[in-house]
Hints:
disordered N terminus; two-stranded antiparallel sheet; mainly alpha; 76% helix
Amino acid sequence: MQMAETKEQLDLPVPKADKMFNLQSFVTKYGMAVVLVGLIVFFSIFSEFFLTQQNLTNVFRQVAMLGIATVGMTLVVLTGGIDLSVGSTIALVGVVVAIAMTALGLDIYSAGALGLVVGATVGLINGTAVAIFSIPPLIATLAMLTAVRGVAYILTGGLPVYGFPKEFSYLGRGMVGYVPVPVTIMFAVIIIGWLILNRTRYGRFIYAIGGNLEAARLSGIPVKFNLIITYVIAGVFSAIAGIIMLSRLNSAQPNVATGFEMDVITAVVLGGISISGGEGRFTGVVFGIFVIGVLSNGMILLNVQDYWQLVIKGMVLMLAVGLDQYYTRLSHRAAQRVQAASLSQGK
């Protein structure tokens, strides 16, 4: 009788977890690459200007600021948080740097350093609110989105600031050989982000905190400190993007980068980073960055109205989050079935 039961247990159907995990793995590793190639082919067919050298250079310049800010957002999202103050931080940093160069007479390096301090300060306030006062990241950064934008308007009186030193434009419009300076900075930041997540203890802490905050705390990880540092880093990267944007536009405007955080969040989620935190490959984020950049550029070339661009980007974000949640549930269910089958066979 026992042998018969054992035989029946051994004949239990094995869950098709491998297929599910393979599908998820394929989507995570190659899905955005396929989408990116598809977008390039689509816009190449319907716009004769898409593959021109000038347009491709513009795409890379536009993507650079998105990419830099996205690296910081990736760290935040991996902890299970979110930063909605990115666009406002970019605006405030641009305003502060502009005023520092014009009204205060600081050189471009001192003004730039001041801008980085401003970005770090915004990140510090965000991190403190989340880690120390236990304010949900959505609420804390939403409040900062409004407050920081308000400070930018107060400092400028709602008017643009311009009249920078000529050499300052090199940061946003210059070239390093055949590569735009902003693109060079973006790839440097991407490499730094990859090294942080894959070669440092801090990177492992981020994944642990996002996976299970309480378990991370009980294992001895300084959760509050690492959360604050994460938001500070995100603020600094947003500041870098803001300085580059200021140099490229050659004027500081308090309303610049409005809604920019939505593009950043979409790039992160499209890149395979789980919106719930603790899961995702950083390499996929690079493809997410270029998907958003190519999509935005292509819609402009096809003369898609601004309002419809917002609709399309919103739907892309919803689709990305929906797929993320779907595959997360799929993975958990498959893992549970595999565990149940293993326990059943082990009896």
